[in-house]
Amino acid sequence: MKKSASILLSLAFIATTALSGCSGSKGGTAGPAGNSQPPDSNKETSSPAPETAEPFEMTIRHTQLGEAKKFRLAILEDVVKKTEAAIPGLKFKLDAVDSEVNRTEKLRGEMAASSPPDIFDVFGSPDAGLYGKEGLVLDLTSILDELNLKDKFTSLDPFTHNGKIYGLPIGGSIEGYFYNKAYFEEKGLSIPKTLDELEKIAETIKADGKIPFAQGSKDGWVPLMTTNNLWSYYAGPEITYGFKTGEAKWTDPKVVQGFEKHREWVDKGYFKKGELGLEYADMRNQVISGEAIMMMDGSWANSVFTDPQQAGDMVGKIGFFNMPPLKENGEVIVMQDTNNGYGFSAKAAEDPRKLKAIKEFIKNMWTEEMQIRGLKEDGVLPAMKIDQAQLTAASSDPLMQDIFQAVSEIDISFPAFDALVQSSVKTALNIGIQQVIGGELEPAKMLGNLQKEQEAANASGD
Predict the structure, then answer these.
(1) Are 154 and 124 contacting, i.e. CB atoms less than 8 angstroms apart?
(2) How many degrees, rounded to 5, is the angle at CA 220 between CA 217 and CA 225?
(3) CATH architecture, domain 173-337+398-459
(4) What's the pLDDT score for residue 3?
(5) Cβ distance 37 to 29 under 8 Å?
(6) Taking the chain, what is the end-to-end CA distance rounded to the nearest angstrom?
(7) pTM, whole model, 2 decimals?
(8) What whole-number distance in Å separates Cα of residue 101 and Cα of residue 247?
(9) Of the candidates 261, 291, 258, 288, which has an alpha carbon nearest to the alpha carbon of residue 275?
(10) What's the whole-number average pLDDT of the chain?
(11) CA nearest 224: which of 25, 417, 424?
C-alpha cells in the first residue's frame, strides 16, 4: 500500500551541528621545498571565498492568531529572524492557521499527501506518533543528543513514540478556574475546597444575576475541559488511559456521572444561554466584561488577563484555582501536560541546508531565555526544566503566582483526553458533548454511541 493511502486510512480513524562558514585564509603562496614566498605585488591577491548564499525558502505552520496569541507570535518571529541571520540564503514563510483547523483538516490532508510544511504546529499524542510511524516526521532523537537538549525538558512523553522523539513541546499547561477576585472579595466568597462548595458559589452568583461559568461551546473541546476534569474526579484519571486499550468503557457508570454533572450545571443555568453559538474568545470576554465570574480554561489564558489592551480594568482582578475534589481533603486531580509544540518534516531534512536550518531553529527556540520569556510575556508554563527561583523571579504577577500555587497543590495529574484516544473518537466526543449541552441526547445515550466509535477505532488498530 502506498504511504499516502496508508495514512489516509489511519486518519480516517483518528482525526548538524552548525557547518563552518569560514574558508582558509591565504596570506602567501608556497614556493619550492615549502619555502614561503610573498605574493606578487603585480597580481591580485586571493580573498576568502564567501559562503554560498543561494536563496532557499522554508515554511513554518503556526497557530498564533489573534490578540490573545500576539506574544507567542512575537517570540516565534524573533526566533525566525535569529535563525535566518545564522543561515545564509534562508527565508522563512510564516503560514498562520487556526489551531483546530490546522490539526483536524489542514495538517491531516498534507500528511496524507506526504507534503507537510517544513516546520509545523502539532500535538505530540496521538498526532505526532501517527505521522512519525508513517515516516513523515523527523526523528529528533539524535539531534537532541547532538544539541545537548534531550534531558532539558520536563517531559517529552507526548512526543515520544516507540523510543523516538517526533517533536518538541513549546510549553506546559494546567486547566483550572480563572475567577473575578474583586467579586469574590465583595461577596465574601472563598476558594472552594470541594465540588459541592463550587456549586454553592455558582448558586450565589446566579442569584446575583451573573453567569457563574463563562463558556463558549461552538468548538467541542472548550466545554470538554470541564467534562474531562469532572469524569476524572468521578471515575479516576486512569480510566481515560483504558479507552484505547479496551480496558475501560465510556459507558462506565462513573464516567456517565461526570457527564451528567456537566449536564446538570447546564440545566441549572450556570452557563450563558446560547453557548453553542459562542466562540472560544467570547467566554473570556464574558469574564472581562463582568458578565461571568468564573471560567474553566487552560493556564495559557492568563496572558489575556494581564494585558491591559485585552482585559482593560480587569488586570490585577483575576485569580486562579484548581477544580476542587469531590470531598474535602481529597486528592486534587488536574489536567497537566506538555502536548502542544512543533514537529519537523522528515522530507525537509533530506536537504542539508534545511536540516541545518531546523537544527538552528531548535537551538534558538528551546532555550532557557525563550522559556522564561514565554512565561513573562505570555504566561505559558515552561516545558523545559527551569529553577523554581528563576520562575518566581520571572513573574511576580499575582495571577501567575496563583497558577504556581495551583501547580504545587496537584496530587495527581493527567493528560487531556485527546492525547489518549484516537482522532475519530475525539471528533465524535466533540460532537457528543454539544449534543448533551443542547439537550439532543442524554449523557448515557451519547456515551453509548461514543463507545461504539471507540470500539471501531480500537478494532482498526489505530
Answers:
(1) no
(2) 85
(3) 3-Layer(aba) Sandwich (3.40)
(4) 42
(5) yes
(6) 16
(7) 0.76
(8) 31
(9) 291
(10) 89
(11) 417
Average pLDDT, integer, range 352-362: 98
Q: What SS3 state is found at 412?
A: strand
Q: What is the pLDDT of residues 246-289, one digit of tens each?
A: 999 999 999 999 999 999 999 999 999 999 999 999 999 999 99
CA distances from 237 to 176, 177, 257, 299 (A): 15, 19, 14, 19
Tell me the domain boundaries of the chain.
55-172+339-386, 173-337+398-459
Burial 279-310 (b: 16+ CB within 10 A, else e): ebebbbbbbbeeebbbbbbbbbbbbbbbbeeb
What gap in Å lies between CA 257 and CA 295, rounded to an integer?
21
Weakest mean pLDDT among 3-12, 44-53, 361-370: 3-12
Q: How far apart are CA 438 and CA 450, in angstroms?
A: 17
Backbone phi and psi for residue 121, each to the nearest 5 degrees, phi listed first: -65, 135
Q: Do domains 55-172+339-386 and 173-337+398-459 have the same CATH topology?
A: yes
pLDDT in tens, 54-107: 999 999 999 999 888 899 999 999 999 999 999 999 999 999 999 989 998 999
- Residue 52 has a pLDDT of 59
Predicted confidence (pLDDT) per residue in 16-60, tens digit: 333 333 333 333 333 333 333 444 444 444 444 445 579 999 999
Place of cell 562558514: 21
Q: How far apart are CA 146 and CA 123, in angstroms?
A: 24
CA-to-CA separations, 45 to 22, 148, 216, in angstroms, rounded: 18, 42, 71
Please state, as a whole number, how many other Cβ atoms lie within 10 Å of the Cβ of residue 391.
18
For the domain made up of 55-172+339-386, the CATH class stated in words is: alpha beta
Label residue 2 left, alpha or beta by phi (over 0 means left) and psi (-120 to 50 means alpha).
beta
Q: How remote is the C-alpha of 47 from its chain's centroid?
A: 49
127 close to 103: Cβ distance less than 8 angstroms? yes
